[in-house]
Amino acid sequence: MSTGWPQLTYESWSATCDTVHAHTQLLGKLAVRLAPPEPQLQHAALRLTARGWETLPLPAPDGSGAIVAGLDLRSHEALLEHSDGRETRIALTPNRPVAEITREMLDGVTRLGGAVDINPAPQEVPWTVPLDQDDQHATYDQDQVAAYFQAATQAALVLAELRAPFRGRSTPVNAWWGTFDLAVNFFSGQAADPPSDDFIMRNGGDAQQISIGWWPGDPNHGQAAFFAFAYPATEGFGEADLSPAPGRWDPQLGEYVLDWDDIRESSDPHAAAVEFGRSAFRHACAVCDWDPALAATADGVPPPIR
User: Fold this and answer.
1) How far apart are the C-alpha atoms of 15 and 7, rounded to whole Å?
2) Each residue of 42-100: pLDDT tens digit?
3) Looking at residue 32, what is its pLDDT?
């Protein structure tokens, strides 16, 4: 097995996924409530940092400065930090229900920067009890969270290498149905034709794009994997043989995937994952008839200024 690339299975991760997802929803709700109005809606405006998931600095409700809210996945704490140096840390343990963490986080914001009201209704989980009243969900497996964070860090390093000058844009941590995926998107500069009726694509500006990303598995694909897709994809897009060989087209997902276990078994997991991303990008550019100068950005060559 490869050093630094942990074993990660969706079956084990999903046992704690719902509860962690509720905590990320809380961070997203705080970000939406405190941040200035954005032209582009986001489900959860979070970023992956060296310590876990965090919001960008948010204006304190009382105007006293800025607050960062996050989940420290190394020390297993929810955190609130004020720009004046004050902070609040709340332990995340297997027996602490969502309601308790939610109330302590909101109380912490009030102490540091003034009262804030959020919509406590859960999203994208089959729950009806508000987050600040949910005493049922209390699963937080520190070992599984640590394994996820270690894997996500490795994935983020791969995606950072794929991100090209001027044409690549990293996404925040997405919590769609608890998948916690990461991705980097490349844009041709042209509008998608025809426009999409899919919310996620419209949220991304409904532009021609190629997405290379990673997720720890979901109900449709119960394995951690890197993925790649193009929007809009032309006929025959799923007929390529990508490099390295374990990469394959998944017709159910409509994406190319390279499973985490296949990467871990390779002699150089990082290089294998990067090659998968570059191979998928080159194929997508060719099939979707993108300008060759844009295709070169996958290797770090800036497109010409016209």
Assistant:
1) 16
2) 445 688 899 999 998 999 999 999 999 999 999 999 999 999 999 999 999 999 999 99
3) 82
Judge contact between 169 and 185, C-beta under 8 A: yes
Summarize pLDDT for 154-181 with one digit per residue, the tens.
999 999 888 876 667 777 777 766 778 8
Q: How far apart are CA 272 and CA 55, in angstroms?
A: 31
Report the amino acid identity of residue 96. R
Give the Cα-Cα-Cα angle 8, 9, 10 (nearest 5 degrees): 125
Please tell me the total number of residues recorded for the chain in this structure: 306
Question: For residue 161, which of 61, 34, 276 has the smallest C-alpha distance?
Answer: 276
In angstroms, the CA 55 to CA 48 distance is: 9
Supply 40's token pair.
Answer: 């582009």
183-198 pLDDT, tens digit per residue, is: 888 888 787 777 666 6
**Cα Rg of the chain (Å, integer):** 20
> Cα–Cα distances in Å, from 196 out to 206, 246, 252?
7, 31, 19
SS3 at position 190? strand
Segment 248-270, tens digit of pLDDT:
999 999 999 999 999 999 999 99
What percentage of the chain's residues is helix, strand, coil (to nearest 5)?
A: 35, 25, 40
- Beta-strand ranges (E) seen in 5-56 are 47-48, 52-54
203-219 burial: b if 16+ Cβ within 10 Å, else e: ebebebbbbbbbbbbbe
Distances (CA, A) of 20 to 45, 137, 152, 264, 270: 15, 10, 15, 25, 27
pLDDT tens string 123-162: 877 788 999 999 999 999 999 999 999 999 999 999 988 8
Cβ atoms < 10 Å from Cβ of 79: 19
Which of 165, 169, 270, 150 is closest to 212 using CA atoms? 169
